[in-house]
Write a structure and sequence with these properties.
Layout (H helix, E strand, L loop, with lengths): L23 H11 L11 H13 L10 E8 L14 H12 L3 H9 L1 E9 L28 H20 L4 E7 L4 H12 L3 H4 L8 H18 L6 H8 L2 H15 L4 E3 L2 H13 L7 E3 L6 H10 L15 H19 L3 H4 L11 H4 L32
Parallel strand pairs: 1-2, 1-3, 3-4, 4-5
């Protein structure tokens, strides 16, 4: 097990080892295996690509079906919610944490359907939560980012360390695929700020409806993003500084979680815009981490498409979802499982005794000699003899 990150200095919390990419040689073997399965090559489309990605992540072909899928929901409140940028009050965050623990939320239902289990981590909920989820709590809510920093330097480091430790705990506990989820009233506002700061986008390009705000709420949210972005752009080149200035403890923890999963060579299914914002920062902290992630879906939040383009990730699903909690990623997880099982369990042409149209190993076609056609020069035909002339005897003359 890696050294516990609690001993890290503040300045080291955001320092990650070089990221080793998934195994390209194994990916090529997976592509070659797909060509031998009992189907026309390429006929399963994206499933073939996803299965090869899982094989490359695991470093083995055929890949092993997932045995322990884990979703971690990072919960935290945000001071900016007091500015009317959400359709719900902040106390809903703590109430939803209790709902997660009772098994009554969408994430619980979708996880059960996908064969995953759920963990909840209170990183910055503005209220009391059960001791089992508050082990890594950094503070009660994050700062009002349009006028103050979200976190102190020490809190930022603690949040990143929390995410790293949670990733280590899950991977050491046997998790072979991870899902990051989020819960926090107002969390799409700091997410939009982070995305705009890292891509140079304008506030109107990244602002969305979040939990379903009306037009007046949209105007307030746009103004909050604009003001926070003025502060964030001053530290845009420093990912840790960006989390401190305009992120939040929950988002910082997610960034640490995603980067650590990549460092531990464990695949992650990403969710929507909040997880996407954390992923963008994680890629800045540990370049190459994105090779270990697959985008579960495309959120209707406009900033999420910017995230996907920036990270060069193609979503598995596009269902018009915007809930968060890891719901989109969990909806996509059975597709990833199916892609893995296709490559691992489907018969090859040779195994099934089915004739393949692949002649690459058929030497008879190369060694058979087709005789060249023989042409015989035709004998000359003699010209026909001329017919004897015909003479007509004139009648005798009558003299």
């Amino acid at each position: 097990m890696p050294e516990h990150s609690a001993g890290m200095a503040v300045e080291d919390a955001g320092v990650f080892p070089p990221i080793t990419p998934p195994d390209d040689e194994v990916r090529e073997r997976a592509v070659a295996r797909h060509a031998q399965l009992t189907k026309p090559q390429g006929s399963l489309g994206r499933l073939e690509e996803l299965g090869a990605w899982v094989a490359a992540c695991q470093g083995v072909c055929p890949p092993k079906p997932f045995e322990r899928a884990r979703v971690v929901v990072f919960a935290g409140d945000h001071g900016i919610a007091t500015q009317g940028v959400s359709a719900y009050p902040s106390e809903v965050t703590a109430q939803m944490v209790a709902n997660f623990l009772a098994g009554g939320a969408a994430v619980n239902v979708l996880a059960a359907a996908a064969g995953a289990t759920v963990r909840v981590a209170d990183i910055a909920v503005a209220g009391e939560t059960a001791p089992m989820v508050s082990k890594y709590k950094v503070r009660n809510g994050s700062g009002l980012i349009d006028r103050e920093d979200a976190l102190s330097a020490e809190e930022t480091a603690a949040a990143i360390r929390a995410g790293r430790d949670i990733a280590d705990e899950e991977i050491d506990g046997g998790a072979d695929v991870l899902v990051a989820g989020d819960m926090g009233i107002g969390n799409t506002t700091p997410s939009a700020v982070l995305i705009a700061a890292l891509t140079g986008s304008e506030p109107v390009a990244v602002v969305g409806r979040g939990t379903g705000i009306d037009d007046q709420g949209w105007i307030r949210k746009t103004a909050a993003i604009r003001d926070a972005l003025r502060r964030a752009r001053k530290v845009g080149a420093d990912p840790v500084g960006l989390l401190r200035t305009a992120g939040g403890a929950d988002i910082a923890a997610m960034a640490g979680f995603l980067a650590q999963a990549a460092a531990r060579r464990t695949p992650v299914v990403l969710d929507g815009v909040v997880v996407g914002a954390a992923a963008m920062v994680a890629e800045e902290l540990a370049p190459g981490s994105r090779e270990w992630w697959v985008a579960g879906h495309r959120s209707v939040e406009p900033a999420h498409t910017i995230v996907l383009d920036h990270l060069d990730l193609k979503p598995v699903l596009d269902f018009g979802m915007r809930l968060g909690e890891g719901s989109g990623a969990l909806t996509a997880l059975p597709v990833l499982t199916a892609a893995t099982k296709i490559l691992a369990e489907m018969a090859t042409f040779a195994d099934a005794g089915v004739t393949s149209n692949d002649t690459s190993n058929d030497t008879s076609a190369e060694t058979a000699v087709t005789p060249e056609p023989q042409f015989t020069e035709p004998e000359p035909v003699p010209d026909p003899e001329p017919a004897p002339p015909k003479y007509t005897v004139a009648p005798p003359l009558d003299l």
